[in-house]
Amino acid sequence: MVQRIRRALSGAAATLRRDIEVARERDPAARSTVEVLLCYPGLHAIWFHRVAHRLNDAGAHLPARLLSQVARTVTGVEIHPGAEIGPGFFIDHGMGVVIGETTEIGENVTLYQGVTLGGTGKDTGKRHPTIDDGVIIGTGARVLGPVHVGEGAKVGAGSIVIKDVAPNSTVVGNPGRAVVVDGKRVDPERIRHPVPEHTRLPDPVAEALVCLMRRVGHLEREIADLRAGRAPAERDDKDCMPSVQEELAAILGLNGTDGVDPGPAGGAGPR
Hints:
By secondary structure, the protein is of the alpha/beta class. It is built from 6 helices and 17 strands. It is elongated and about 95 Å long.
């Protein structure tokens, strides 16, 4: 019995130390351990949750909920006692974060203020997201329903995710759409030490508009050549129209490019 208590206390102490280390690693504003202990509501919310979760697992559901409501009042973070949260979890700033009952969160996950990991409707059973290791979810993002966010993924600030997110991808927009980061797969070594780089998130809508502007410019030059009796110059850049069609389809909630007809010469037109 004594050994079991010692092991439990040792494990709890190790978890607390890791929580503090994670805050110092991921927030450059953290100057000291004392500052983290006293001034980080995200850290306090996690510690409240660890106790509430133990109570919930032991069948003390009402005390667990009461403790979670105390934590909500004190920290501004609401975590249901039933949520499963792995080690290395960090909530930066914390205010307005909501994590639902059947949420499952892996290791080394980072959330920023205003994030919601919520359900949809009045479904029972598994109705909240599953977040794999090393995921970063930006300010004000909403991940709704029993969706799966893969390892090392990033969810941009303000995004609304209602579909599964592939590992090592970046999702932005409403509804959330996967985009490529710098044309490269995320380095697997960064999964354990994620770097947010929110200012470098691509904007797929802006990219589509830039593509259309380039295409209009090319068509205008082609018309000018034809009017002058010259053969139109060959294009010296890759046709970006297929990516625009995919973007329009994603915005309209269509499958693939259904509903977007390339039309003659690859031009987009309604069906």
